[in-house]
Amino acid sequence: MKMSCGKKLFLQILWCFSLISLGSQTRSHYSFVVREAQYTRLCSTKSILTVNGDFPGPTIRARRGDTIFVDVYNKGNYNITLHWHGLKQPRNPWTDGPSYITQCPIQPGRKFRQKLIFSFEEGTIWWHAHNEWIRATVYGAIYVYPTKNTTYPFPKPDAEIPIIFGEWWKSDVEEVFRQSIETGAAPNISDALTINGQPGDLLPCSIPGRHQNFLPQ
């Protein structure tokens, strides 16, 4: 199995296209509780790993030059780390996420404070779990606004709408991963692509018009 299958996980080729309003609130501290939650997609219900019970997870809002802290409480059944994709983290690799490379994973029942340094980033990036296929459901957007009293190099948008692409498997994603490792074959193809955690309107048990707000009028 090529490394790109396990790493990119086709899971979150997360494209956060965002229209960002300058009035959004930022804060310096977030609390992420990693836990199982029941979610129904494609006419079937299963337990997935989430942050604060949300899928996709919470959106982080910060400004260029901010330093914020995220307290991660692991109430799940697996070791976990979180990676802040697109954040350079200058001189701060110890909370960047890659398990057994820059930090030890957070074990079940433990907690860890992650420090996020926003140096020059602006725009929309994302965060995701950084160990095996837990990232299939543990991810979310990060809005990085300009420093106060500065503006974007374009007109002020009317709204902010993240568009997060992912995938959904009816089966347990950890089992899909284990089966691929054991057989040496490519992972089973997902049952649906998702936008903001929802499959398309034409798939079974989807809500009609779910994605109409994302389409040109």
Question: How would you sum up this structure, described in words?
Answer:
The chain has 217 residues and is mainly β. The chain has helices spanning 3-7, 173-183; strands at residues 29-41, 44-51, 60-63, 67-74, 82-85, 111-117, 123-129, 139-145, 165-168, 192-195, 198-199. The protein has a 4-stranded mixed β-sheet, with no helix packed on it. The N and C termini lie far apart (42 Å). 30% of the residues are buried.
Cα gyration radius (Å)? 18 Å
**Oligomeric status:** single chain
Termini separation? 42 Å
Strand adjacency order, main sheet:
2-1-4-6
Average pLDDT, to the nearest integer? 83
What percent of residues adopt helix (DSSP H or I)? under 10%
Q: Summarize the helix and strand pattern as letters.
A: HEEEEEEEEEHEE
Helix segment count? 2
Q: SS-based structural class? A: mainly beta
Tell me, briefly, the overall form.
globular
Compose a concise summary of this entry.
The chain is mostly beta strands. The protein contains two helices and eleven strands.
Helix/strand layout:
Layout: H1 3-7, E1 29-41, E2 44-51, E3 60-63, E4 67-74, E5 82-85, E6 111-117, E7 123-129, E8 139-145, E9 165-168, H2 173-183, E10 192-195, E11 198-199
Parallel strand pairs: 1-4, 3-8
Antiparallel strand pairs: 1-2, 4-6, 5-7, 7-8, 9-10, 10-11
Which terms would index this structure?
217 residues; 4-stranded mixed beta sheet; mainly beta
